[in-house]
Specification:
The protein has 316 residues and is an alpha/beta fold. It has two domains: 131 residues, Nucleotidyltransferase, domain 5; 170 residues, ATPase, nucleotide binding domain (Nucleotidyltransferase, domain 5, 2-Layer Sandwich). Helix content is 39%, strand content 22%. The strands form three sheets. Strands 3-2-1-4-8 form a five-stranded mixed sheet, with helices on both faces. Strands 11-10-9-12-13 form a five-stranded mixed sheet, sandwiched between helices. Strands 5-6-7 form a three-stranded antiparallel sheet. Helix 9 links the parallel strand 12 and strand 13. The chain is globular, with a radius of gyration of 20 Å. The protein binds zinc ion (ZN). InterPro entries: ATPase_NBD, ROK, ROK_cs. This is ROK family protein. Pfam families: ROK (PF00480).
């Protein structure tokens, strides 16, 4: 049985595991990234841990990490959560250390592939994965193949313009879906409402600076008017963004993940409602909109699936 090492690199922690090809996670370890110590030290800790997990039947290493990155060169270009990783040759370093192929992709594409092989995307050839948490990311699989686009920039569903003069987005554009419907955006709208002096129970729970989307959701569930307005508006924008994706790609399935996306069944119901109002040229009853299934190990399954995808495509 062929096996794979998976490495899920985040700004807070790095998870590392060994998988059997059919998707069994045999062993895993999680350690803090501590990005301030720099790439070399982090690389050393990754190498030490991979050595411990390496067995003779391991045929490849898969990596999921924050972008931007060049997945062919295997270099990462200064993601906001990994300061100092400016053009670091991670693929080359690991291939030299272990003499087996290393495949990498950004974390959203990795999660998309993880769901495709082992989660909510099983059995489907055309799907779009949308993760809604602090940001909004995504991945697109068409005819069983992840879409990379020019310089690996495809699938950035969070950066479609929804409101031409909307709030400024981290990418530089105004009114992106991410700037309107991510957890960060929801929290920001709540802080702005408080600054305007609007009456809400949110301030009873938290200092203004520490309000999160989770607080807004809890207040919405209790009927707080300000929180309800903010939450519903964000969900409407999310529904519009997903409607746009459906209109353009007409996929078989849309998979919704992330802490906001999975915060309650009402999120998907609301998305379906808006899609029903906005999408006319695609038979929306033939597009399934479902929650992601992989849970907390999605990053590891994703990293494994990046390597599995490349190896599988090569074999066909
Ligand atoms: Zn943007």
């Amino acid at each position: 049985m062929r096996k794979y090492i998976a490495v899920d690199i985040g700004g807070t922690k790095i998870a590392l595991g060994r998988f059997k090809e059919e998707g069994i996670l045999e062993e895993k370890v999680v350690f803090p990234t501590r990005p301030e110590r720099g790439y070399q030290k982090i690389l050393e800790e990754m190498v030490e841990n991979i050595e411990k997990f390496l067995t003779p039947d391991v045929i490849a290493i898969g990596i999921g990490t924050a972008g931007p990155l060049d997945r062919i060169k295997g270099e990462i270009y200064s993601p906001p959560n990994l300061p100092g990783w400016n053009g670091v040759p991670l693929k080359k370093d690991l291939e030299e250390a272990f003499k087996i192929p290393v495949y990498m992709d950004n974390d959203a594409n990795a999660a998309c592939l993880g769901e495709y092989y082992f989660g909510a995307g099983k059995g489907v050839k055309d799907l779009v994965y949308v993760t809604v948490s602090t940001g909004i990311g995504g991945g697109i699989i068409i005819d069983g193949k992840i879409l990379h686009g020019r310089r690996d920039s495809a699938g950035e569903v969070g950066h479609q313009t929804i409101l031409p003069d909307g709030p400024l987005c981290n990418c530089g554009n105004k009114g992106c879906l991410e700037a309107l419907a991510s957890g960060t955006a929801i929290a920001k709208r709540a802080k702005e409402a408080i600054e305007r002096g609007e009456d809400t129970i949110l301030l009873d729970w938290s200092k203004k600076e520490e309000i999160t989307a989770k607080h807004v959701r809890s207040a919405m569930l209790l009927g707080d008017k300000v929180a309800t307005y903010i939450w519903n508006q964000a969900m409407e924008y999310l529904g519009i963004g997903i409607g746009n994706i459906i209109t353009i790609l007409s996929p078989q399935r849309i998979i919704i993940g992330g802490s906001v996306g999975l915060s309650g069944e009402d999120v998907i119901l609301k998305i379906k409602e808006i899609v029903g109002q906005r999408v006319f040229l695609v038979p929306v009853d033939m597009v399934e909109i479902v929650p992601a299934q992989l849970g907390e190990d999605v990053g590891l399954y994703g990293a494994f699936s990046v390597a599995l995808h490349e190896i599988t495509l090569k074999a066909t």
